[in-house]
Write a structure and sequence with these properties.
Layout: E1 2-6, H1 11-19, E2 23-28, E3 37-38, H2 44-54, E4 58-61, H3 69-82, E5 87-93, H4 115-130, E6 135-139, E7 142-143, H5 150-159, E8 166-167, E9 170-172, E10 175-176, H6 177-188, E11 194-197, E12 204-205, H7 206-216, E13 226-227, E14 232-233, H8 239-242, H9 252-257
Parallel strand pairs: 1-2, 1-4, 2-3, 4-5, 5-6, 6-11, 7-10, 8-13, 9-14
Antiparallel strand pairs: 9-12
């Protein structure tokens, strides 16, 4: 399969390039990726030109910018509008939901409380209307193995004494970037359509996650500052999606400490 990966300079994009198995063409915005094509997803004409040039069989759209509606929402819609016959997997987020005690299943509608969550929710809604055969893959905090994820970098900064705090009331379902990439590639070639949840099976507070990362990296977890923060419990129930995957979505305590 000829596969176009947007956001190829990011953590997930780089992992998709490494995973292999397809002829992968990376698309990047500002940080150059070798062998890739420059793409500003905010411009529909640019998206059209790249897709016509690459002629992909599949597209995994990972590009986003948390504080930019045009990139996160309009960019995703532009890709869907110009995808033609390519199979589209759109990477969405648990930010499309607000906090509650019960986990969210795949069939639940978005209820965002942040601008970023609203942008992802808007993209989901438009893609489902424009391209009902697409896959929408909601995920959670993405953790790597080499310290390049946002959470890993934050642990190192705070362990070194920089200002900041980890909140014990902020709960998510972290996923390893290699598990996520493998699952997305599986979904790409599957018969699955619609909303999927691709997050880890273990819910952890940002503080507990930070402590696990610190232990893995040989840092003292006792140095990490914590505070309750505003309660924000957003959990994705990924069991329905896991049932159709060969890739096992590992709990964070396993992939960080094993």
């Amino acid at each position: 399969m000829r596969l176009l990966v947007t956001g190829a300079a990011g953590l997930l994009g780089r992992e998709l390039l490494r995973t292999g198995g397809h002829e992968v063409i990376p698309a990047y915005h500002s940080q150059v990726v070798a062998g890739g094509v420059q793409l500003d997803v905010r411009r529909r004409d640019a998206v059209r030109d790249v897709i016509r040039s690459v002629r992909p069989d599949g597209i995994i759209h990972t590009a986003y910018k948390q504080d930019d509606w045009r990139t996160t929402a309009h960019g995703a819609v532009n890709v869907a509008l110009e995808a033609d016959d390519a199979r589209l997997v759109f990477v969405s987020s648990d930010a499309v939901f607000g906090p509650r005690e019960a986990a969210y299943t795949e069939n639940e509608l978005p209820c965002p409380i942040t601008p970023y969550g609203a942008a992802k929710a808007a993209a989901e809604t438009a893609i489902r209307a424009v391209m009902p055969g697409a896959v929408i893959a909601r995920t959670s905090l993405i953790i790597g193995s080499d310290g390049h994820s946002e959470e890993e970098q934050r642990v190192r900064r705070l362990a070194a004494g920089e200002p900041g705090v980890f909140y014990t009331g902020n709960i998510r379902c972290p996923v390893h970037v290699s598990d996520l990439a493998s699952a997305l590639l599986e979904l790409l070639v599957s018969e699955v359509i619609g909303v999927t949840h691709v997050a880890g099976p273990e819910a952890l507070s940002r503080f507990d996650l930070g402590r696990l990362i610190a232990i893995r990296d040989g840092l003292d977890p006792q140095t990490l500052p914590s505070a309750p923060g505003t309660p924000s419990d957003i959990r994705l129930d990924s069991r329905g999606t896991q049932d159709v995957l060969k890739t096992r979505l590992r709990p964070a305590s396993e992939f960080l400490l094993s």
